Amino acid sequence: MKEEWTVFALTKSLRAIAGALAISAVCASALAAEKVVAVTSYVEHPALDAVRDGTKDELIAEGFEPGKNLKWDFQSAQGNAGTAGQIAKKFVGDNPDAIVVIGTPSAQPMVAATKTIPIVYSAIADPMAAQLVKDWKPSGTNVTGMSHMLDPVPQVEIIKRVVPNAKRVGIVYNPGEANSVSALNNIKGELQKQGITLVEAAAPRSVDVAPAAKSLIGKIDVMYTTTDNNVVSVFESLAKVCNDAKIPLIASDTGSVKRGAVAALGVNFYDLGRQTGKVVARILKGEKPGDIASSTSKNLELYVNTSAAQKQGVTLSPDFLKSATKVLN
């Protein structure tokens, strides 16, 4: 009888332990599935897409895998400011564990919409001008991120290496995008120091890019582009204008080189995405965004397109080609 009671008690204890383990497993599974990352990009083009993909790949490397322990919700504003505002409201209502904003026009309404949900920005040329953070120090707010701000000095150097006698540099930009205005002012100041004039043409919408570029024909020696989202989204149309008019086209986004630019010295946007993913992972693991300083990518690469150079009437020196990270034919 005593032995039967002992067996009964042991069996009961084992069942209790098994039940507790099952409950723990369910709880652990629930916790693992809790992480939600909402991602939005102002427009879809190769540079911003690379940031998005790099961010996701890094999260997977950090142990957060969509479909297993991470819900990945991506939405594009399709280049529409109103849509960007609607996405901001939706994401705030969804209350995810972190929000990733790619591009200034998407970042600004999101930062204005919430002061509590962690926000990680990326592909922002000047986060201070965009009023996302005050400086490069930890913000103490719910915002941090990665910038692709470029030093204008080497940008002007590339322009001069492609077109040594350039005196007038054209630029097409969106005056409504803080990212573009800041980049324009930076390059303009450096050009002026070297006796070179910047000739501007506004393109508030992507459909305005080609007409704006055509308005510069006969007024410039070379065309330069920043990472203006309107321009990059329809870069082929800008390249066609430059090809037809034999105007050398230089970009600051390496992804634009295979789309028709002669050369670009810029960040690797996929790598920028991987760095962004590391920041997001730190937040998902418990760190506060306000304790993480904003930073920039130092990984600059020079891409050159010899076919575009030929179409645009440019002869590139052997030394310039040798200095390139990648040469496209």
UniProtKB/TrEMBL annotation:
CDD domains: PBP1_ABC_unchar_transporter
Coiled coil regions in record: none
Signal peptide residues on this chain, from the entry's feature table: 1-32
Record-linked Pfam families: ABC_sub_bind
Keywords, alphabetical: Signal
Protein name per UniProt: ABC transporter substrate-binding protein
